[in-house]
Amino acid sequence: MLLAKFRDEVEDILSRYPVKRSALLPLLNLAQREEGFVSEPAMRDIAKVLDLTPPQVFETVTFYTMFNLKPIGRFHLQVCKSLMCALVGSDDVVTWISKKLNITPGQTTSDKTFTLSVVECLGSCGTGPMMQVNDDYYEQLTEEKVGRVLDDLARDGTCPLKSGPYMYPLPLGKS
Amino acid sequence: MAALPTTTKDLVTVTIDGKSTSVPKGTLVIEAARQVGVMVPHFCYHPKLAPDANCRMCLVEIEKMPRLQTSCSTPVAEGMVVKSSTSTQAAEARKSVLDFILANHPLDCPVCDQGGRCDLQDFSHEYTATTSRFKELKRVFPKEYFSPLIETQMNRCVQCLRCVRYCDQVMDVKALAPVGRGTLTEIKGFGAHELDCEFCGGCIQICPVGAITSRLSMYEFRPWMLKRTDSVCGYCGDGCQITFQTKDNALIEINSTQGSGRNNGDLCARGYFGYHVSEHSDRLTLPLIRKGDEFQAVQWEEALELVGQRLLDIKAKHGADAIGGLISGRCTNEDIYVFQKFMRGVVGTNRIDSSVRYGHLNAVHAMQRVQGTHRWAVSFDDIVSADTLLLVGTNITETNPIAGLKVKEAVKRRDAKLITIEALEPAIGSISNIANLAQHHLGVKPTGYATAILGLLKAVMDQPVLDVELQSRVSGYFNDISARLQAISWEAIQAQTGLTSDMFTQVAQVFDQGKKVVILVGPGVLRASGGFGMTMNLLDLLLVTGKLTKPGCGLAPLAEENNDQGAFEMGGTGAVLPGGASLGDPEARERVSQAWGRPIPETPGSSLPQMLEDAQQGTLKAMFVVGENPLGSLPPSSGIHSAFEKLEFLVCQELFLTETAKQAHVVLPACSYAEKDGTFTNTEGHIQSVRKAIDLVGESRPDWEIFSAISVMMNDPMEYGDVKEIGKEIRDLLPGTRTLGPAPLPAQPGSSAIAHYVTTDYQRDIGVRYQLPEQVTDTAGDIILQVSQSLFHSGKFSRKAKGLLQVEATGKLYMHPEEAARRGINDGDTVKVSNGLGEVMVPVGLRERIPQGVAVFPEHFDEEIRRLLPYHVDPETQVPYCKVARVRLEKTVGA
Amino acid sequence: MAKYETILLTNMGQPGYTGSIKEYEQAGGYQALRKVLKDMQPNQVIEEVKKSGLRGRGGAGFPTGVKWGFIPKDHPGPRYLCCNADESEPGTFKDRQLMERDPHQMLEGMAITCFAIGAETAYVYIRGEFRLGAKILEQAVQEANAAGYLGQNVLGSGRTIKIFVHAGAGAYICGEETALLESLEGKRGMPRFKPPFPATHGLYQKPTVVNNVETMANIPHIINRGGEWFSKIGSPPKSCGTRVFCLSGHVKRPGNYEVPMGIPFREFIYDVGGGMRSDKPLKAFIPGGASAPFLTPDHLDVKMDFEAVAMAGSMLGSGGVTVMEEGTSMVWAALRLMEFFYHESCGKCTPCREGSSWLAQTLQRIWNKQGREGDLDLLDDLCRNIAGRTVCAFGEAEVGPIQSSLKYFRHEYEALIREAEATRPRHKEIPVLSR
What we know:
The structure holds 3 protein chains of 3 kinds.
Chain A: H1 2-5, H2 7-15, H3 24-35, H4 40-50, H5 54-63, E1 75-80, H6 83-87, H7 90-101, E2 114-119, E3 131-133, E4 136-138, H8 143-156
Parallel strand pairs in A: 1-2
Antiparallel strand pairs in A: 1-3, 3-4
Helix pairs in contact in A: 3-4, 4-5
Chain B: E1 11-16, E2 19-24, H1 29-35, E3 59-62, E4 69-70, E5 80-83, H2 88-104, H3 119-127, E6 150-152, H4 162-170, E7 177-179, E8 186-188, H5 202-206, E9 212-214, E10 227-232, E11 241-247, E12 250-255, H6 269-273, E13 288-291, E14 294-297, H7 300-318, E15 323-327, H8 333-347, E16 352-354, H9 360-371, H10 380-384, E17 388-392, H11 396-399, H12 401-414, E18 417-422, E19 440-443, H13 449-462, H14 468-473, H15 475-486, H16 490-497, H17 501-513, E20 517-521, H18 523-526, H19 531-544, E21 554-557, H20 564-569, H21 586-596, H22 608-617, E22 622-626, H23 630-633, H24 640-646, E23 649-654, H25 659-662, E24 666-669, E25 678-681, E26 687-690, H26 703-713, H27 723-733, H28 751-759, H29 766-769, E27 782-788, H30 802-807, E28 813-815, H31 817-822, E29 830-835, E30 838-846, E31 854-858, E32 872-873, E33 880-881, E34 884-891
Parallel strand pairs in B: 1-5, 15-16, 15-22, 17-18, 17-20, 18-19, 20-21, 22-23, 23-24, 27-31, 28-30
Antiparallel strand pairs in B: 1-2, 3-4, 3-5, 6-9, 7-8, 10-11, 11-12, 13-14, 13-24, 25-26, 27-34, 29-30, 29-34, 32-33
Helix pairs in contact in B: 2-3, 7-26, 8-26, 9-19, 9-28, 13-16, 13-17, 13-19, 22-24
Chain C: H1 10-13, H2 21-26, H3 31-39, H4 42-52, H5 64-69, E1 80-85, H6 94-101, H7 103-117, E2 121-126, H8 131-146, E3 162-167, H9 177-184, E4 208-212, H10 213-225, H11 227-232, E5 234-235, E6 239-240, E7 242-249, E8 255-260, H12 265-272, E9 282-286, H13 306-311, E10 320-325, H14 330-344, H15 350-367, H16 375-386, H17 394-423
Parallel strand pairs in C: 1-2, 1-4, 2-3, 7-10
Antiparallel strand pairs in C: 5-6, 7-8, 9-10
Helix pairs in contact in C: 3-7, 3-10, 4-7, 6-7, 7-10, 14-15, 14-17, 15-16, 15-17, 16-17
C-alpha cells in the first residue's frame, strides 16, 4: 500500500488537522509526488485512511487542475497564457516549444520526456512570459532561454535557470 | 415530533406577495412562502437537504435588501416584506436562470423519461421566452453505462447537486460525486466504475430533470399514460407509502411522494425496484391438484370442493385439532383475520400460527408482559426526536432501511447520541453502515448479544439509581437484578465479548443522561438463541433507568415482514385472539365468539414448532399453509421434511410453486398485494391502506375470498361481499384500535401491567435471563456462520423481482478481508463450509464491516447452506432459533 | 522619480537579505510579538488595528480590525486564522515576493492576529503552484517553532500558536474566502452562501478570520509604530498605509513596488514603472487585477486608493496594475480574461457556470470574425444577468472585462462584427460537392 510506505509523513499530515478530511489535498499531493499521477489504488488507500468513500476522494481530485489522473511526461511544461503574460508574448513561447519538441498543447513527446500544457496565471506577471516545469518556475523567457531549458532538462534533469525566491525588480547592486 | 413553538417570542411575522403569516423563527423564506400558498420556483432546494443556494432560481425581492436574495437560504426576519410572483425583477432573474440552463440542456424531451413531470419543462413554460438566444456549442458528455438499475444522461443535468446531497446527508452512502469543474461538471460514481450503492432510488426520485432515471422502466411510458394507485410496500415492516404507476394493467414503476407516509417519501431498493414480483411469469394462475407425482391444473370449483371435503373428512375422523394452519405476515390484515376466523370458527381449531413466530413474537410477547401493550409505545417520530438511541442486533440498514433513515436523521440532523451493539465493524463500504455513525460502538459476534446486554445492565446498576421512587416501591425487583448482575464478573463478560467494563460504563452514563431514549432491537437479537430473554432484559433496562414510562422513550422492536405486526393483532398466532388478548382469557373469548356468532374452540393453540412435532407424532394430519414456505425457511435439522411428509393432506395457498407447495396435495393460487385491497400494520402498529393496482393475475384470488369459498364448501358459510365488510367487522370487534390516520397513535404502557411485572411476574424467568450463556469452545478453523437478511432482498419473495436480481442474484459467504487473508482465501474463491450437520461449497466475498471470526450468508439464497444450521426453540415463546451455527472453513483448490 | 519609504519591502530591499530568522530578528523582527504578549490585551490589539485603518489587501478591502472584531467573544471555540496565500488573480504577484523573501514578516503578523482573535491554530493556504514559496514558508515555520515564537507556550506567555502550511492544488476560486475554507476542509472549493459569515461559521463551522498575506505582513509594523502612525500614511481616512502594487504588461520596468496609497496612476506607471516599453502610447490599463474593469488614459490621474478607483468605475482590488499599449486589441484582451474566468468557474451556481461558457464562446466567435448583429446586446444582457445573481463575487468579476471594454472600446467590437457580417453568406447555401 502506498501510504504504508510513508507512514510517518502521513501521521504528521494527519496531526495538523482536527478533522481528517482536511488532509485530503496533502495526501493526494503525496501520492502524485510518488507515482507521477493520482492512481485509483492511491485514491482508495487515501479514502480508507480518511474515512471517506472513493467517490468523495475522486470528486475532490477532479476539481483541482494540478492533479493528473493519468501518467504524463517526466517534465510537465506549463506555459502561462493569461492576459498579462500574453501581452508580453506567451503565445510565442508556446510556438517555440511546439516547434522544438514537435508537440502541441495537451500532447506528450513520444519518449515521454515532455508534456506541454497551457495554464492560467501562475503569479509571475511582472516577469513574463514564463512557464512552470514540475516544481520550478522559469521566467522572462526568450526563444534562446526556452531552448536552453529544454536541453538542460532533457540532458541533466535539472536547469540552473530556475527561479529562486522571487523579487522583482531586484534591489540595487543585484543583477 | 418537534415541539411547536407556543410563545409569540418564537414566532416571526412576514409578508409574502401581500399575504401575511406568522412562522417559527428560523423558517426559510421559501418555506414560509409555501405556507401562504406562494410557490417559489427552485431546483436545488429540498426540505430534506441543507440549503445549497446554487441554482439561483428561487431569487426573490426582499425590501431593504439591495440585491435579490435566494429564498432557500434566507431565514425570515420580523417584519420582512418579500415579493416573489409580484416582482418583475424576480421574474426576469428566473427567466435568465432558465436561459442559462437551457443553453446547455439538450433537446431531449421526446426521448426523456422525465418529460411531462419535469421541473425544467414546467418552469420554462412559466418563465421563458419561446426562442433561445444561445448560438454556441452545447457541452456534451459521452453516454456511459452507469449501473444496472440507475441510468444517467449527464447532458440534461442542471447541477443542482440534489442527488449528491441526498446520497450524503440523508442516506449516508456518499456514492455519487460531482466530477470536474465549471460547466463540465458531471455526476459519477468512482471514476469509470459502475455505481455501487444501496440502489434506494432516492437520486432518481429527487432529480428535478431527466438526468438520473430508472433503467427498469426506461422508455416504457409517458407520465400522462400512468394510472396511480397509492398503496403500501409489501416487503418489510417499515410500511412505506408507495404509489404504483401502471399503464394498461402493467406495473411500470414505483415512487413515493415527497412527504408522504411514515417514510416521508424515501424508499429502499426493495420498495423502489422490487415490484416485478407480482408480474413474474412463474405466478400460479390456476389451482393445482396432485395426481400421482404431478400437478394437474383444475378449475376453482374442483379444487375448493376437494379441500372442503378433505378437511371435513379429517375433522370427522381425527378431530378438528388434527388440522393446523400457517399464514404469512405478508398477507393483509383482512386475509389473516378471515383465516383465523375460518380455522377457529369453521374448521374448529386454535392451531394456527404465522410468520410472527419466526422472531417478532419475541418482541410482542415481551412488550405484553412488561408494559401491557402489543404495540410500540413510541413511533418513528420519537426515533427522530430522540436524544439517545440504542440499537441492539438490528443491522438496520439491511433489515429495516427506512427505520434506519430515522436513526440517521436523528444523529445527523439533530445531534442525537447513538450507541450500537451490533455484529458490525465501523467501516466505509458501498452501503451505509450504522456503526459508522455511532459515538459508542460495541462490536459483538452474533452469539454475544446476551452477554453484552447483561454487561450494559451491570454497568447501569453500578451507576446512581435514576428512578428512586420505583426502586423504593419495588426494591425486591431492583435488588434481585442487582444481586444477579453482581454475581457475573466483568472478566467473564470480557472473555465472552471482548468488551471491557470501561466501555460499558461509558455507554451506561450516556444512556442514563438521555431524556428521550429509544431502544431499537432487531433480528440479530429476536432471532438469536435466547432472543426472548434478551428482549425482556432490554425492557428491564428501560425500567430500572426510569425511562419506560417517560414520553419519547421506549422499546422499538423492528418487524421483518410487512404485516407481522398485523398478523399478531389479527389473531394469526393461535394462542392470541384478534386484538391481542390471550385465548385463555374468558371475557375476551366470550366477546369474540359473540361477535362471530360462533363458539371459539376450547383447546389451546399451538406454535409451528409444536405442530411439526405433532405431525411427526402423527397427531397432526393436515395443514393449510398460506403464503408461508416452511420447507424453504426452516433448516432440515428442524425435522420439517419428515414432518410434512407424514401429513395426510397439505394445502398451500401461494403466489409461486415453492418447496412447500411442491409437496402439497392442493395448491391454490393467491394474488399479491398489488392485486387486492386491504390493510397492513407496520412495525409501529400503524394501519395503512393497501390498494389494488393491477388486475388479478390469471385465476388468482385474494386470500380472504378463498377462505370464504372453502367455508361454503364445508357447509358453514362465512361470506363477505368485499374487503370493506371485513374491515367493518374488525373495527366493530376492536373499537378504537383501528384508526387509519397519517401517523400512529402509540400505545401507552399500562401501569397495572408494569406493576404486575415488577412485583410478581419477573420472578418467573429472571434466573434464566440473568446468567451468562454457555460458552462454546472454539475449535480450530471455527467461524461463526450467520444467515441473515440482505438489503436487496426480503425472504425468498424478492427473488422473483428482476430488478433486485440485477443487484444481487446469488449468495456469497461474506467475511472480513483480514479473516480471509489469515486463512489464505481470496475474494471469489470457493470454500467448503462444514459442521456436524453437513457441508456445502460456496463462493467467498469480502466485506470490511463483518467482524472477524464471523461469516455472513444471505438467507435469501440459503437452500444449501441451511443444512448446516441447528434448530432449537425458545422455551417460553416457541420461537425457533436457527440462524447461527459454528462451522469450519476449508479452502478448496481453484476458484 | 519620487522615492517612497517602504514598510513591507524594507528588509528584502537590503542587499544580501536571505529572510532567515536570524536576519529577521536582527532587522528588529518579532519585537511586535513580544510587545503584544507582554504588554497588550487582545482587544487592545484589535483597537490598534482598527485605528490604523488597515483594509484587506487581497482584493475586497474590508477593514481588518473590524473583521477581527466580528469574532464572537463568548464562543467556546476553537477559533482559527487562515492566511489567504492563494494568489491567483492574474496581474498579482506581490504575496509571492512577500512569502519567498521575508516569510517571518507575515508569520509574525499571523501570530499577533492569533493572539488578538483568540486562535490557537492558523493555516496558510498557499496555492499549489508556489512550491518554492511553500518550502520556504515551511522552513520559516520550523525556525520560528525552534526559536519559541510559535508552538506551545509562545515566549513563555502560556499561549499556543501553531501555524501550518497547507498547499492548494490549482483553483483560482479557492482565493474566495469561503471557497478557501471548503478547500481547507478537504472538499471541492465551492464558495458558501453568506450569511452566515466566516467570523461566526468558518473553518469547520467555527469562528474564523481569513486575511491576505500582505495584510498580515503589515501587522507587526502597526504594532511596532502604532496604528496612528499607519493611519497618516497614504490616503487617509479611507485608504491608509502603503500597498505593494504589481506592475505588468507593456511597461519598461514591471515588478512589485511599494508606494503609499493615493499616488496617481500616472506617477506609478510612468515614474515608478519607467513608462511605456516602446513609443506606442498607453491604450488602456487594469487597475487592480483581472477582476477590475478596464480604465483608459482619461483615468491616469485617478488616485490609487479604494474610493477614487471605485468612483472611476473600477476597483483597486488586488493591486495588480496591467498596462496595455496602443495596438492591443481590447476584444482580444477581454477574450483572454474571459477564457481565464471560464476555466476557473467552480460550477456551483447557474449564472456563472453557464454564463461564463456562453460569454467566452460568444467572444471567441466575435474575435474569430464570426460575430453577428445582436451579439453585443446579448453580451450586455448576459453580463447584467450574471452580476449580482451569483453565490460569490466571481460573477461580478467575470463580467468586468467585457462590460468595461464594451463601454470604452465598443468600436473595436463593432468593427469585427461588421467584418464578419460582410463576409457571411447571406443565404444558407448547401456547398456544392460534386463537380
